[in-house]
Amino acid sequence: MCGSKMSTTYRTAWISDVHLGTRGCKAGALLEFLRETEFETLYLVGDLIDIWSLRRGIYWPQAHNDVIQKLLRKGRKGTEIIYIPGNHDEFISEFLGHYGSVTIRKNAIHMTAEGRRLLVMHGHELDNVVQHLGWLAHLGDIGYVTLMRCNWLVNFVRRIMGLGHWSLSAYVKAEVKNVVNFIGKFEESIVRYAKDYNVDGVLCGHIHTAAMRMVGDNTYYNCGDWVESCTAMVEHHDGKMELLFFDPTVSATPTLNEEEEKHPDYQPVLL
Questions:
Q1: Mean pLDDT of all residues in the chain?
Q2: Which end of the chain is less crowded, N or C, counting CB atoms within 10 A of the terminal residue's CB?
Q3: Which helix (H) or strand (E) holds 42?
Q4: DSSP letters of 78-126?
Q5: What is the structure's pLDDT at 161?
């Protein structure tokens, strides 16, 4: 984790765009986050599982099983888990309702400890390409996967040279004018959309760009992703919101901790 050292217990946490089932998923970094932190409520803000990728070919290593098991274990220990499907796992929206400690919802209104109302949604609802040009969205997804594979090669060479991690895709997003304009328009659009819910802010994912800023009179939060930036949004018990960053180079195949290995009801998830 980067930044100042903080408590490992939070009132609320939000994670988005994990993309389990893809080679780009930083499952190891996410497992470290889930092991090191506890929270009363956890929002899974869409694209937890990448069904688009799994339809093209099955990729499901043990670390991805471990993430699912860790989430379910947190639920059994008392964490309220609210799962809001995105576009890559949209089929789950057909099963809205309560399932033990997990609630699947289209969106949610979160009330902070300070009494502020936040609309929580994935964000693909405001993406015209996803909503009206599905074929183009899938083509773009293939291009994104290709970019991430190039990113792996770049960082492989950088490690040999003794250099640190560098995100090619993040650089492209920051430098390409059309991408920067898209992100800006997305933020403005989703804040306008949220005003219909009479809220003080909106929290989403989808565009893999973590942020926390004022857009007009409302606060825009984006909890980022676990493919590139490895970020999570958290709420402290006093209502303060904070964006956390984690090391994306943590091993993608970590072992379960001792408590989980000893637990008699542990069973691997088979998908």
A1: 81
A2: C
A3: strand 38-44
A4: T-EEEE---STTGGGGGG-EEETTEEE-S-EEEEPTTS-EEEE--SGGG
A5: 74
Q: What is the pLDDT of residue 152?
A: 60
Measuring CA to CA, which residue among 57, 53, 185 is closest to residue 123? 185
- Backbone φ, ψ for residue 68 (5° rounding): -60, -45
Total Cβ atoms within 10 A of residue 250 = 16
Please report, for the chain, the start and end positions of each structural domain, with discontinuous segments joined by +: 10-256
**Phi, psi torsion values for 36, nearest 5 degrees:** -90, -10
In CATH, what is the architecture of 10-256? 4-Layer Sandwich (3.60)
Q: CA 268 to CA 257: how far, in whole Å?
A: 14
Alpha helix locations (H) across the chain?
Answer: 27-36, 51-56, 62-76, 128-132, 134-160, 168-175, 177-194, 258-262
Return the amino acid letter for 9: T
